[in-house]
Amino acid sequence: MGIWLIVWFLVGILTTATVIAFLLALIRHLLVLGRTARRMQEELSPIVQQISTEGGRASERASRLGARR
């Protein structure tokens, strides 16, 4: 009965180590994804602001053209 106890103990330790390794890999990937999302937001922010500004101008011009009729 002692050998089965050692086998199950080893299986438990290996399973725990595997789960911990997967959790560490998941955390690492989440950090990489967060950095990438932040970088993308920083790069796209000026473009989004420009589109928003031009959209506002277009809206103003459309309202002025509509008022003339």
Write up what this structure looks like.
By secondary structure, the chain is mostly helical. It is 97% helix and 0% strand. The chain has one helix and no strands. The chain starts with a helix and ends with a helix. The mean pLDDT is 92.
Distance between the termini: 96 Å
Estimated helix fraction: over 70%
Principal-axis shape equals: rod-shaped
| Average pLDDT figure | 92
Structural class: mainly alpha
The tally of helices reads 1
Residue share in β-strands: under 5%
Reported for the largest beta sheet, the result is: none
Beta strands, count: 0
Q: Radius of gyration in whole Å, from Cα?
A: 29 Å
Please mark out the parts with pLDDT under 50 across 5 or more consecutive residues, or reply none: none
Elements, N to C (H/E): H
List the main descriptive attributes of the protein structure presented here:
69 residues, mainly alpha, 1 helix
Question: How does the SSE layout of this entry go?
Answer:
Layout: H1 2-68
Compact overview of the structure:
The protein is 97% helix and 0% strand.
